[in-house]
């Protein structure tokens, strides 16, 4: 038997409890599997940005403003030669933490993909692409996180 449950992301607490109870009733070793969608939503993107540092948010914002591409040399020129050291690692760690906390599946892809090295520096990325269809999602997430920071300040 195959049972499919679809609900809004994030799932309401009563749905989460009901599914957890169902899985507990099934017990280990029964062949029951659970899969979740591995797509970025605004809610997931907001959670991701809340769990990263300012430099990583700036990189995501640059990709949004660049209509899906953050230009490496331009980003370094604006934020310093070392500005792209760290954001991708920070992003990877935040994605892992979010998966461990149940915000998204462990196999969700990183929203950013690096390009090949730029022509002006050995081993420096030429930039980052925001995944297909993610510009509006992360634009809304950046806006939300920025507004939260303004209201706290």
Number of strands: 3
Helix fraction, binned, reads: 40-55%
- Name of the CATH architecture of the largest domain: Orthogonal Bundle
Total helical elements: 6
Describe this structure in words.
The protein is mainly alpha-helical and 153 residues long. It folds into 2 domains: 34 residues, no CATH class; 114 residues, Arc Repressor Mutant, subunit A. The protein contains 6 helices and 3 strands. The protein is elongated, with a radius of gyration of 18 Å. The mean pLDDT is 86.
SSE layout:
Blueprint (H helix, E strand, L loop, with lengths): L12 H14 L15 H9 L3 H12 L3 E3 H8 L7 H14 L11 E3 L12 E4 L4 H18 L1
Antiparallel strand pairs: 1-3, 2-3
Helix pairs in contact: 2-6, 3-5, 3-6
Give a brief description.
This protein is mostly helical and 153 residues long. It has 6 helices and 3 strands; from the N terminus they run H-H-H-E-H-H-E-E-H.
């Amino acid at each position: 038997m195959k049972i499919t449950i679809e609900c809004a992301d994030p799932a309401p607490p009563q749905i989460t409890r009901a599914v957890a109870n169902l899985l507990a009733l099934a017990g280990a070793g029964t062949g029951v599997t659970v899969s979740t969608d591995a797509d970025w939503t605004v809610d997931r993107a907001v959670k991701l940005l809340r769990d990263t540092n300012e430099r990583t948010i700036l990189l995501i914002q640059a990709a949004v403003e660049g209509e899906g591409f953050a230009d490496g040399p331009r980003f370094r020129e604006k934020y310093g030669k070392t500005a792209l050291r760290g954001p991708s690692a920070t992003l990877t760690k935040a994605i892992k933490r979010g998966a461990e906390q149940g915000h998204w599946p462990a196999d969700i892809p990183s929203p950013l993909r690096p390009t090949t090295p730029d022509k002006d520096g050995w081993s420096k990325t030429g930039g980052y692409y925001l995944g297909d269809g993610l510009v509006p999602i992360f634009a809304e997430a950046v806006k939300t996180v920025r507004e939260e920071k303004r209201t706290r300040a």
